[in-house]
Each structure stands twice: as C-alpha cells, then as structure tokens.
Specification:
- By secondary structure, the chain is of the alpha/beta class.
- It folds into two domains: 277 residues, Aldehyde Dehydrogenase, Chain A, domain 1 (3-Layer(aba) Sandwich); 197 residues, Aldehyde Dehydrogenase, Chain A, domain 2 (3-Layer(aba) Sandwich), CATH 3.40.309.
- It contains 15 helices and 22 strands.
- The strands form six sheets. The chain has a seven-stranded mixed β-sheet with strand order 14-15-16-13-12-18-19, with helices on both faces. A six-stranded mixed β-sheet has the order 9-8-7-10-11-21, sandwiched between helices. Strands 5-6-22 form a three-stranded antiparallel β-sheet, with no helix packed on it.
- The chain is globular, with a radius of gyration of 23 Å.
Length: 487
Amino acid sequence: MGLSFDPDQLTLPIHHLIGGERIAAKGGLEMRRPSDGKAYATCPVADGAMVDRAVESAKTALKASNWGGLRPRERTKALQAWADLIEQEAETLAKIEAVSSTRPVGQLIAGDIAVTAEQIRFFAEFADKQGSDVVPTDDSTFGMTLSEPYGVVGAITPWNFPISMAGWKLGPALAAGNAVVIKPSEMTPFSTVYMAELAVRAGIPAGLINVVLGDGPVTGNAITGHPDIAKVSFTGSTRAGSAIMENIARCGVKPMTLELGGKSPQIVFADADLDKAAAAIAASVLFNAGQACVAGTRLMAEKSIAARLIEAITAILKTARPGPTWDERVQYSPIISERQLARIDSLVEAAKAEGGECLTGGHVMNTPGYFYAPTLISGVDQHNPAIVEEIFGPVLTVQTFETEEEALALADHPVYGLASGLFTRDLSRTLRFARALQAGTVWVNRYSRSRDHILPTGGYKRSGIGKDLGREAYEANRKSKSVLINL
C-alpha cells in the first residue's frame, strides 16, 4: 500500500486528552502546512484551569492505578504493548504528523516511528532492572538508598520531531512510575494526541498521559510553574529553556532536564575517508532541512583536502528536491513556517554582508510551501552571523585549519556544546579530540545517532542540563531517599 495521501481528506485529533477523554476546545492558533502554506486547522490553547485539570487527572490516575507501586514487570508489559500498537498504527501516525510537520511520510515510517517504538521498549526494560541499593555501613547499622518516582512530570516537546520527542519524554517517565502532563508544540501537536490515545488502548491506565495543547507563554508557563508538577523535561531553544528556568525559579524549585540549542562542528582531517565524510556531512544538513538541534552546521576541513571535500559536499547538496511531506517519494523537508523561512534567509544575507560567500544555495526555493535551498557558505570568521547564530535550517559553513590546535579553537563555540563530529583514521587523535571537544556527544567517522538507545544525549554550556535517552533519562525520572537503620 502506498503511503502518499491527500492532506485535505485527513481527520485530525484536534483536542486535549485528559483522563483518557477527548476535551474539545474552540478557536486557538492558526496552523499552516509547511509543505504548501495552506491554513488547515487551529490549535487550542489550554489555560491554567485546563492544566490544573490535567494535573488532577494525573494525580488521580497515579493513586487509582498504583502505577508507581505496581510490580515493575507490569509497567514493562504495558509499555511494550503500547510500543506494539504504535508500530501497528504507524501509517495513521505518520500521516497525522506529516500533514503538519516538516517530516516526510516515508521517513516517518522508516525512521521516527520505528525508532520511537524501540525506545519505549528500551525504557520499559528499566522498570524491573533499576532500583534501590543497599550501601556499605558499619556492622551496627543498615543503610540503603530508596529510588522512587517523582509523581507528576511535566513535559514540553518541540515541533521538529514530534513523535520522537514525545517518546523521549513519555517512555522514561512512565517506566519510572510517573504520570505525565505533556504539551507538544502548537505547530505540530496532533501526533502526540494520537500516541496518547494509543497508550490507553494498549492498557496504560487513562490519566497517566494527559496531553494539553497550547503555546509556551500560556500553557507552557502553567505546566512549568504548577506546584503539583514535581519535575520538568523540555526540548527546544536555549532562549525558551532560559524562560522555563526563570519561571520555575519564580514559582518554586524543582528538577529539570533541558535539551537546548546547538551549533555543532564537524572536523575533517586529511587522513579521513573523504567520500564517506562528505556523505555524512551533507546528510546532516539535508536531514529535516537542518532543523535539528544537533545539526552539524559548522565544517572545519584540513586545508590540504578542503577543496575536494567542498566539491563533494556541494554536489550532494544540489541533489535536494523539494516536495510535500505527504508524498512518499519526497526526502527533502520544508521549513516549519514562513517566519522561520524569512529568518534563515535574513541570516544568510547577514553572513554574506560580513564577507561570506555562498558556494551553493543561499535563497528561498521557487516552489509551493516554505523551502530553502541547501546552502554552503565559505569565507566566514568566528564573528560571522552564520557561525555565531543557530540558524536552524539547511545552512553549512566551511572553515579551514592546518593544526589540531587550530581545529579545536575553531570548533569551540562560546554558547553551544551539544554535539560534534570528527572524521579521521588516527586513533590517538580520536581519543585526544574526544576529551577536548566541548560537547555532550562526539561522533567519529559518522554524524548521526544510532539505535543504541543506551547512549544518552545532552549538552554542555547553554545547550542544556541533564540527559535524554540512556540510563540517565530513566534515573532523571526517579528521586532517591537515604535510609539508615540502627540494628
């Protein structure tokens, strides 16, 4: 069966989901499809009262189901059943997300949805394998640390990978015994609603996942500042992360996990496999049209091979073909909104005004929807806007170096430290750079995540606090208590 579909014939779940029930809401924020710019829906905006209702539903569901106190294997089974249903409903999920987002329907089936199901199963298996510890004390006492769920966790996800990000938040929080109130982006909310409905169908007690639709200033602030939400997890921009920290501090104190912006370097030495390096670097810019916080948008090439590498990357970038996300043949994504498209274009123009030269691209594509041509800019220094700013689009800069010290100096960014890439065959150099690069992730001879979900992701500097994925994500959804008993 083909995956291509008519977006005008699609029924969307335009509602909040609280206690397993669909809560209708009128009006809201106008939504436009990135692929053709057509207005197609409005996103409701949950106010403080609606968030209160969602939190109460979460608390009630936790108590009624004893979710955090069940035999851990029961949580595992329920989450595994949910993952199975996500896979079974992959086509419906993919269509709901593709219509409003930048994710092509074919990539959703092959990548986002399949990986999300895997990740939920991965976290489900932690439920009965991570727990409390007996700790060494003297013979007259018995000491232990008890691990407990927080209770109600608040989650806010971005627009660029809606299904994947919902899985990042919901999987570890539920496996750890919590309930969740989640707000997806107002630009791409509906696939998260459908995922939550699938969770209820799979047997996860209604109310453990509550989805409230809305924007950051109203709905997001109500979640992060809510006194009964014990922990917050957010993925998005550094600016929004700072606002969340400020709101939490103003309303009280609670732990948070923040995965924020990035401006990641990719360093290529002359001994690298240049064809593989070029393919990986170009793919990292073409994937989702560069709309990923880990996008490797700053290239540093050893001077002796720079020209050859640039030629190979440019050739790949020129192959990008725009098209609507509901066409299964399409691989290149639109930009999320007209506003973001204009921002990308203005930053490229600013980079050119400061001495940058566009070797390819550098313009809005002449096609329906919000598409920007894959762009490669040379002639930039460390103060150029294309180096400093997180553009969040398909824009790659290139600089050259001659020594390892120079490469590291160029790679270091004053604000961001989310991810980095290194291409070399030299093992000693690899280990030196793995230690020296100021980033939460170092990819070597590749630039992409794998399906090794045990590897955590998170940033240095202003790229975030804490980790998603890995054991760390599960542990971030548990709190510990020390117990010391006199015998």
